[in-house]
Amino acid sequence: MTEIDPDLVKCFNLLASSSSFVIRLDVKSQKGTVSNPSSVPENDGDYLVHGTTKLASGTELESVFCVDTDSGGDLAAVYWQTKKGWMNSQDARLPAVLGVERHEIFPFGWKFSVPLENDTFHPAKL
What we know:
The protein has helices spanning 6-17, 94-98; strands at residues 22-25, 32-35, 46-54, 60-68, 74-82, 85-88, 109-112. The chain is mainly beta and 126 residues long.
């Protein structure tokens, strides 16, 4: 069972209510800085970014992604809003909470509410 730190849940709720905001995570201080950029800067560390996830089954979930901007947008962690509250995408309880089989969850697609300057997984269309 994976419980999420209550302070992190507060950040998720902030982003869910104000999806144009992002939170930059400082690795050294473990503090977050809230901003409202038009895009998330490249090579600027880890950010929490609101968005949506589309599961393999087609179900869409409100999401918060921990994105590594130093590596082209790798997802360090994914959190989903469920009827039981925010849950980590790796939580073993997810299939039961979502009422689906594991193969109906993975693989999943995602979209950020604030685009990344460099998004390896969602390159800009020319």
